[in-house]
Amino acid sequence: MKISFTFEPKPAVQQELQQQFPTHDFRFGKGAAPERDTAIWVTYGEDVKVAAIENLPELQWISVASAGVEKMPLSLLHSKEIIVTNARGIHKTPMTESIIGHILAIYRNLPAIYTLKNEQTWEKPRGSKELRGSSALIVGPGAIGEEVGRVLTAFGVEVTGCNRSGKTIEGFSNTVSLEKLDDQLGSADIVICLLPSTPETHRLFTIEKFQLMKNTALFMNFGRGNVVSEKVLVEALKAGEIGGAVLDVFEVEPLPESSELWGLPNVVISPHVSSHSDFYVERAMEIFSRNLSKWEQGEIDLENQVDLKLGY
């Protein structure tokens, strides 16, 4: 069976895969199109286009080494009954550390301290506050959100989750369904958005939702950029509807130099790096290896299988 990688893992990872699965024909080629007789395609997802799929008559499974699949032609893949899996869950450690790091930096006023150091000024900046006793609303608490909630709870934060079903999340103070999001926005000191990109979540955060929030609230978007219009977010920030924002994802990436977000003092811009880690590919390949072992046994109920109708 031919397995085509359209990115190149480190040589040691390639060798390990070939040793673990010696009966398969692995092909590794960064930027190269999969060969026509490819049965399994391992990719970051951005090169999965209609033309490529139509040129792969034997394709059965696409293993995406990232979490997002919204740019892929999901309806076509569904019609062709091609299985898609992703690397959901491998980001939870680096993204949790990034999110918690930003929160602590803002609450303990670290940016001001760093600025004073660079200016060689001995001055005690005002504005530091404790995280303990505050409240956080995590919108879209999957594997990443659950870990963020666990760590925030350890800091003494009251955590509420908001997911599609309203299903209870262990360790959270409360969990509500997405349709009850508006009822929770007014009580949160920190709103953390980790939603995927789907028709249901597209521009979910309207100006009315920001108006429901505390004018001191910190809005954090670490899910997908299109859950909020940049124009709406700028309007909410300039009007003082919320206290500030930390953004790792944007409607347009890279963020254009002309974007007003760059000039707003109450905005932290992170260039979509919160999930970066030395262990990224290693963790993604662990999921792929477990799934390939299942595949060899004839199992098609694979780990992290994407619901192509829902888009995640």
UniProtKB/TrEMBL annotation:
InterPro entries assigned to the protein according to its UniProt record, in alphabetical order: D-isomer_2_OHA_DH_cat_dom, D-isomer_DH_NAD-bd, NAD(P)-bd_dom_sf
CDD domains: 2-Hacid_dh_1
MF term (GO), any: oxidoreductase activity, acting on the CH-OH group of donors, NAD or NADP as acceptor
Source organism, top-level taxon: Bacteria
Keyword Oxidoreductase attached: yes
Pfam families in UniProt: 2-Hacid_dh, 2-Hacid_dh_C
Domain D-isomer specific 2-hydroxyacid dehydrogenase catalytic span(s) in chain numbering: 38-300
Ranges of residues in domain D-isomer specific 2-hydroxyacid dehydrogenase NAD-binding: 100-274
Keywords: NAD, Oxidoreductase
Family label: Belongs to the D-isomer specific 2-hydroxyacid dehydrogenase family.
UniProt name for this protein: D-2-hydroxyacid dehydrogenase
